[in-house]
């Protein structure tokens, strides 16, 4: 064991500060990602406390400086996430602290928070409700004294029924009807009703699959509230077939009806969301990508777009 001695220097070496970089050059972002923090969010819906994964970074504008002060970023996050509820303003304040602690090195800072927002959702028809977990990302970027970028990201899971498959299934049902009810026989209404409710009558069904919409919104200004539920609701309302938590038979039947009324290729789903987001003045820009995890194929069908199509994030 090393014993204390007056021969041991009283100050610890700081290589990042004291030694110049071997190769000079400014760096856009330097910091840490995946920091584990307790997290309570101030949002537009009750969200239980959770664990967040935090990214904290600053620019390294001084080309000859070896590195930044990683511990200062961590301690600022620890103080913020441990002792207060987090909203947009709190995240903006943390980025200001990043720059204050790196005044000689950095002009830009960012913080990104990834977590799951657990939101209570009502059933479609019955009086039940259940929990749905939505992956959510919050991002704030600062440039000097100004907040330059505020971004909300989230994922929505929904069901998509293939329009082509539905048309092919209907054709088979028509053919079976003509076979079971030939034109030379008098049609019996009750027999037709019974036939429609039988496996022999509805012999083909269209394929549908669980699908995912990934959405990133650049918000105008620094909103007072983190509106998680509002924007998720807008996307789910545009799609109409968001997956359900608590489901009784009447809910399952209502869900089947929604799928039948909202047949969607991946292109249709992307355009539905695009149309809805384009109508919202609080959104300065957006990017979205949908994945239909095909039940027919071993691969996904995908579509991607952004506000005005060109540009993107």
Structure characterization notes:
- The protein is of the alpha+beta class.
- It has 2 domains: 23-162 and 207-306, Urate Oxidase; 164-196.
- Helix content is 30%, strand content 32%.
- The protein has 8 helices and 8 strands, in the order H-E-E-H-H-E-E-E-H-H-E-H-H-H-E-E.
- It has helices spanning 15-18, 70-83, 88-100, 163-180, 189-196, 228-239, 249-261, 266-278, and strands spanning 27-39, 50-60, 108-122, 129-143, 146-161, 208-219, 283-293, 300-306.
- Strands 1-2-3-4-5-6-7-8 form an 8-stranded antiparallel sheet.
- The two termini are 54 Å apart.
Name some characteristics of this structure.
elongated; 2 domains; alpha+beta; Urate Oxidase; eight-stranded antiparallel beta sheet
Report the CATH superfamily of the largest domain: Urate Oxidase
General form:
elongated
Integer-rounded radius of gyration:
27 Å
Largest sheet features: 8 strands, antiparallel
Number of domains: 2
Identify the strand order in the major beta sheet.
Answer: 1-2-3-4-5-6-7-8
Strand percentage lies at 25-35%
Helical content band: 25-40%
Mean pLDDT: 92
Distance between the terminal alpha carbons, to the nearest Å?
A: 54 Å
| Low-pLDDT residue spans | none
By CATH reckoning, the class of the largest domain would read Alpha Beta
Succession of helices and strands: HEEHHEEEHHEHHHEE
Quick synopsis:
By secondary structure, this protein is of the alpha+beta class.
Walk me through the topology.
Elements: H1 15-18, E1 27-39, E2 50-60, H2 70-83, H3 88-100, E3 108-122, E4 129-143, E5 146-161, H4 163-180, H5 189-196, E6 208-219, H6 228-239, H7 249-261, H8 266-278, E7 283-293, E8 300-306
């Amino acid at each position: 064991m090393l014993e204390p001695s007056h021969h041991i220097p009283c100050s610890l070496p700081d290589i990042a500060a004291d030694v110049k970089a071997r190769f000079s050059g400014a760096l856009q972002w330097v910091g840490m990602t995946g920091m584990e923090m307790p997290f309570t969010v101030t949002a537009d819906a009750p969200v239980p406390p959770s664990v967040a994964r935090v990214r904290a970074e600053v620019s390294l504008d001084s080309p000859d400086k070896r590195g930044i002060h990683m511990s200062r970023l961590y301690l600022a996050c620890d103080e913020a996430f441990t002792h207060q509820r987090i909203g947009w303003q709190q995240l903006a304040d943390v980025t200001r602290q990043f720059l204050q602690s790196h005044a000689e090195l950095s002009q830009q800072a960012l913080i990104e928070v990834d977590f799951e927002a657990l939101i209570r959702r009502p059933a479609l028809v019955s009086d039940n409700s259940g929990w749905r977990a939505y992956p959510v990302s919050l991002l704030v970027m600062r440039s000097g004294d100004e907040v330059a970028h505020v971004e909300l990201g989230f994922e929505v899971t929904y069901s998509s029924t293939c329009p082509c498959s539905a048309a092919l299934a209907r054709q088979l049902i028509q053919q079976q009807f003509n076979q079971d009810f030939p034109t030379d026989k008098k049609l019996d209404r009750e027999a037709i009703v019974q036939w429609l409710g039988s496996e022999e009558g509805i012999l083909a069904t269209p394929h549908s699959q669980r699908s995912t919409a990934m959405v990133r919104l650049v918000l105008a200004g620094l909103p007072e509230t983190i509106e998680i539920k509002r924007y998720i609701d807008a996307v789910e309302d545009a799609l109409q077939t968001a997956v359900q938590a608590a489901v009784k038979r009447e809910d399952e039947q209502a869900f089947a009806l929604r799928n039948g009324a909202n047949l969607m290729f991946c292109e249709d789903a992307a355009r539905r969301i695009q149309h809805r987001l384009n109508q919202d003045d609080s959104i300065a820009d957006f990017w979205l990508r949908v994945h239909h995890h095909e039940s027919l194929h071993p691969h996904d069908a995908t579509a991607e777009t952004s506000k005005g199509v060109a540009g993107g994030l």
